[in-house]
Specification:
This protein is an alpha/beta fold. Helix content is 33%, strand content 8%.
Length: 344
């Protein structure tokens, strides 16, 4: 498969000047949309570079042979998680020192990640340029001077550091009324039919439409240490799902029906659903949880799911064992998930 690469810059540092490595490390400023990824030396794990990317993004994989993050040992799963976090947090520039130590396969993975996210890549090639692999040899932008490198790090980057998440395409449902107006009640026979056993429930409106009709339920406060622990979770769907449970104290089963449409475009509100859509409250999303839900939404969209599919469906399989395992590692959040919680 041919790959079309985005903006890539090769910095040739044949003398392995400490200046370049030091400048690259100092350039790590995630809040400004620029991160420095330090490849783990001599790692044989196929997903090692993706794990390094997740680490640079502030994510930490759970340790141990029985880790609930073991599914991120898969190359595709790890790079998909890294891409979702990169998009959700607005990464626009990635600097990679000692790129000459990367295998051709990992270089291809990195270039593909850059193309998928739209971020600019700057690779420090700290040996003779004649060793550049074909994928990098055709890159036209090469630098070899200190001033040029410093200027490159000072550039604003190729995409904004604060991404926008437009709402998904609307689905068929009840008409939306203007803000400040009362919605017209459904005809009695329509309401009865929507709740009649054996008949499918009416399509539930999106979070954006619901926000025009009702006020969102305030979120529940959690300690900053607990919010930080959730923010460090490596998989976007795990982090997003557990954050919702933390600030809503809703049952796990309510996440089963959460669609892309149920998160507002600004990620400030989320709509949860009960069985048959009899009770579908709209919840306010706290500021600390918005990047986590943005990561879950980005992950969902990168896998090309339609708007009506459940965002958290991949982590709800097998009795949600990955969610339960991570919840067990965060006891102070009181997110114990007994088996019965899969049914609202």
């Amino acid at each position: 498969m041919a790959l079309v690469y985005g903006e890539v810059t090769i910095v040739v540092d044949e003398q392995d000047d400490l200046f370049y490595t030091r400048a690259a490390l100092q350039a790590h400023r995630p809040a400004e949309g620029r991160i420095t990824v330090q490849p783990t030396p001599a790692s044989s794990s196929p997903a090692a570079l993706a794990h390094d990317m997740l680490y640079a993004l502030g994510k930490r994989l759970a340790p141990g042979p029985n880790s609930p993050d073991v599914w991120l040992d898969s190359v595709n799963a790890a790079w998909l998680a890294a891409a979702a976090w990169g998009i959700a947090t607005g990464v626009r520039h990635v600097v990679v020192p000692r790129a000459h130590l990367l295998t051709i396969r990992r270089i291809d993975q990195l270039l593909a990640w850059g193309e998928l996210t739209g971020a600019q890549l700057t690779l420090l090639w700290q040996k003779a340029p004649r060793g550049l692999p074909p994928a990098l040899a055709r890159v036209e932008c090469r630098l070899s001077g200190r001033d040029q490198f410093e200027a490159l790090l000072a550039e604003p980057g190729s995409i904004p550091a604060s991404p926008s998440f437009p709402p998904a395409a609307p689905m068929a449902g009840p008409a939306v009324v203007a803000a400040g107006q009362s919605p017209a009640p459904l005809p009695r026979e329509t309401r009865a039919a929507s709740l009649r056993p054996g008949r499918p429930a009416r399509p539930c409106t999106s979070a954006m439409a619901t926000a025009q009709l009702v006020q969102a339920v305030p979120y529940l406060e959690i300690a900053s240490e607990e919010a930080s622990a959730l923010a460090a979770l490596a998989h976007p769907l795990i982090a997003g799902a557990l954050s919702v449970l933390a600030f809503t104290r809703a049952g796990l089963g309510s996440l089963r029906f959460t669609r892309d449409l149920d998160i507002t475009g600004d990620v400030c509100a989320i709509k949860l659903h009960g069985v048959g859509h009899r009770h579908c409250p709209l919840h306010t999303v706290p500021a600390w949880a918005r990047p986590l839900l943005a990561g879950a939404r980005a992950h969902h969209r990168l896998t090309a799911h339609p708007p009506g599919d459940g965002v958290f469906a991949p982590v709800m399989v097998a009795e949600a064992r990955h969610l339960r395992a991570h919840a067990g590692r965060l006891p102070r959040l009181d997110l114990s998930l007994p088996a019965g919680t899969l049914v609202p």
